[in-house]
C-alpha cells in the first residue's frame, strides 16, 4: 500500500498561496532579508520618535509593519499585538486611515517640534526656511490621511472592499 507522505511543515518565511496579497511573504529570501532590515531600522526610528520630538513615530511604525508583512510573519504579528502601535497599524492596513485623535496629536506635536527647532536655529535663516517647508509638507500630508472617526468626512471603506469593487467594475466592461 502506497501512502502519500504528509507535506513538510511550512517554515515561517515561506509564502502561502491562501494568504491575502498584502500579507504574503516575498518569494525571494534576499528581498525578505532586505525588507526585514528596512523594517527594523524603521521600527528603531519610530521608537526613537516616541522620545525625540523631531522624529515622527507613526510613519516609521507603519513602514515597519509594511516591511514585516512581506518579510516576517512573526514580527508583523508582534507589531499588530502591541497595545499602542497595533490599533493604528490595523486601522491603516484595513481602512487606509488614521484615527482622528492620533492625527491631531501627531500634527500638534510636529508643529510644536518644528517651532522649537526653528527657534533653536535662529542664527541660520536657510535652516529655518527648510524646517518650515518640511513642517508644512509633513503636516499637510498627515492631515490629508482620511479618518474614519471624523464626523465631517465620508467614512472609509475597507481596503478589500475598494479592491473588490474596482475589480468587479472592470470585469463588467
In short:
The chain is an all-alpha fold and 173 residues long. The chain has helices spanning 29-51, 58-71, 73-81, 85-95, 100-120, 125-144, 159-171.
Structural class: mainly alpha
Averaging pLDDT over every residue, what do you get? 79
The total beta strand count reads: 0
Stretches where pLDDT is under 50 for at least 5 consecutive residues are 6-19
The number of helical runs is 7
Beta content comes to under 5%
The H/E string reads HHHHHHH
Whole-number radius of gyration?
Answer: 21 Å
> How far from one another are the termini?
53 Å
Helix coverage percent? 55-70%
Give the biggest sheet.
none
User: What is the 3D form?
Assistant: globular
Descriptive labels:
single chain; 173 residues; mainly alpha; 0% strand; globular
Fold blueprint:
Blueprint: H1 29-51, H2 58-71, H3 73-81, H4 85-95, H5 100-120, H6 125-144, H7 159-171
Q: Can you walk through the features of this model?
A:
- The protein has helices at residues 29-51, 58-71, 73-81, 85-95, 100-120, 125-144, 159-171.
- Mean pLDDT is 79; it is low at 6-19.
- The chain is built from 7 helices and no strands.
- Helix 2 packs antiparallel against helix 3 (73-81).
- The protein is mainly alpha-helical.
- It starts with 28 loop residues before the first helix and ends with a helix.
